[in-house]
Amino acid sequence: MTGERFIPNPFENSKFNRLYKTGDLVRYLPDGKLEFLGRIDHQFKLRGFRIELGEIEAVLSQHPGVQESIVVARVNELDEQQLIAYIVPYLEQTLTTSELHSLLKQKLPNYMIPSAFVILQSLPLLPNGKVNRRVLPASDGYRPQLEEDFVAARDTLEFQLAQIWTNLLNISPIGVKDNFFDIGGHSLLALRLMAQIQQQFGQTLLLSQLFEGATIEHLASTLRQQTSFQPQSPLVAIQPIGSKRPFFCVHPIGGNVLCYHHLANYLSPDQPFYGLQSLGLNGEGEPNTRIEDMASHYVKEILTIQPEGPYLLGGWSMGGLVAFEMAQQLQKQGQKVSLLALIDGRVPFSNIKPVNIDDYDAKILANFFQYLASSTGKNISISYDALQQLSADEQLNYILKQVQLTNLMPPDAGKEQLRCLLQVFKSNLQAMLNYTPHIYQNQMILFQASDRSSDALNESTQGWEQFSSKPVKIHTIPGDHYTMLSKPHVQVLAEQLMFYLDKAQSEEVLPSIH
User: Fold this and answer.
1) SS3 category, 421
2) CA-to-CA distance for 413 and 230, rounded, in angstroms?
3) Alpha helices in 10-115 (DSSP H)
4) Which residues are registered as beta bridge partners of 45?
5) From 389's CA, which of 41, 162, 378, 494 has a CA 20 to 30 Å away?
6) DSSP 326-381
7) d(CA 282, CA 420)
8) Strands, E, within 17-97: which ranges?
């Protein structure tokens, strides 16, 4: 091979002057430049290492479930080179990324392990029977098949970490139990991951902490153990990128904004989306018990992002009520609100007098559990009758056991964190029941679920027409109160909401965003 690679220089008559035959295929252009066409073999240079792709394919073929495999080198959307393995399994064989990773790690160095594995029914072929590498499908954006079941983010910290991973790895969705290195991460990306965590949270994590547990769940737990970590603002940048005016969407009754993840993703990539979450979720303060106080606090926060209107506001369920009050307060300050979007929110029943919710603990706990489940995309509930038979402390222990069994909260969450979430839920319920709205001097857009519960208001506008000086525009979204924010119904909601976001912004001159 040395004789084949180091050849005599045909341009100089000297036996000591040799050229190295790299294996790159090039051609001369008329101006004397060389155009690189590819390789005459399947070698590839990745992050300084020269790799023979056939060597990776040979190891993959040793797996009893692999019928055919091919490995290619591609440049992803982030302009980074990566290895992609395309696998054709034997019939009725289920292959996971984890087991393929395990096999390769036993035989090959880390830099030769592909960033992504794509399972195909068959490899595309050319008329001569060779694999048509040009038409192999892209791997970007898809979560690989892993041994771990998908577990969505369960609090704001896990949610923000998942956003960082999605941007780095170009994969969605990412579960909190997914291993960073099993879904395409490598040492260079790990350095960028640590840098972005430090930038966003102001906390320094060591690379060793990532290798100890390369999951969002582990990193979130590590950050929580650093006592200085506390969210400083109710604003959560769900999708902060874009030149359009930001859309501010208020939390529902549970206080967090995890439910808006899909909605933000299906809007225009150029549309910034900020969530507003309740105080007290992490025990960092007492939650507000009045809609007016919440709205006042949130208005001050959005002014730090957008000092001048017009403003785009909205919220799902109770969040619509808070957004309604925010719009009222902004208009009193002389600001313009060009969009108020109510997502299946309703006016509190006018015949209910101010109440003390502590008299309804068992029922509230059952509703609280259902809310926690719905915010992570699960449709599960617990028995109100079973809770009624327990004391207050036993009820909390029972709920804690259920949320841990069903992965509704991080495994290191204890009774105190559950108590904080419950207190936010109860405070928001108290605020909602005691709120008296006033006439809004502008138009509202109501996105209403098609499957309405039996206790919903009979009025077509869920009571909002009596508090608006203009007719309420109504759009019906498939699904019920909870599923309208989940796939596939959320795509319909996003399309209709985007129409009004674009319409509101096309009518105004864009303000300066800080």
Assistant:
1) helix
2) 16
3) 53-60, 97-107
4) 50
5) 378
6) HHHHHHHTT--EEEEEEES--PPPTTPPP--GGGGHHHHHHHHHHHHHHHTT----
7) 7
8) 18-20, 24-28, 34-39, 43-46, 49-52, 66-75, 81-89
SS3 159: helix
**Which segments of 450-510 are extended strands (E)?**
473-477
Confidence of residue 379 (pLDDT cuts 50, 70, 90): low
Residue 342 CB partners (closer than 8 Å, separation 6+): 314, 315, 320, 323, 324, 444, 445, 446, 447, 464
Distance separating alpha carbons of residues 282 and 244, to the nearest angstrom = 31
Q: Which two tokens stand for residue 392?
A: 């207050």
SS3 category, 299: helix
Structure tokens at 57: 């394919």
Residue where the block lists tokens 């108590």? 419
| Residues 6+ away with beta carbon under 8 Å from 236 | 156, 159, 160, 257, 274, 275, 276, 277
Residues in the chain: 514
> Cα dist. 441→6, 132, 292, 465 in Å?
82, 63, 17, 12
Amino acid present at 54: G
pLDDT of residue 457: 47
Average pLDDT over residues 453-472: 74
Tell me the C-alpha to C-alpha distance, in Å, between residue 264 and each of 107, 200, 203, 386, 500. 42, 20, 27, 37, 14
pLDDT digits (tens, 9 = 90+) for 275-306: 999 988 776 678 888 999 999 999 999 999 99
Give residue for tokens 């990776």: 56
User: Residue 28 has what DSSP assignment?
Assistant: E
User: What string of DSSP letters covers 230-260?
Assistant: ----SEEEEE--SSSPPEEEE--TTS--GGG
Global confidence as pTM:
0.65
Residue 85 in contact with residue 120, Cβ under 8 Å? no
What's the farthest any 2 CA atoms get from each other in the chain? 103
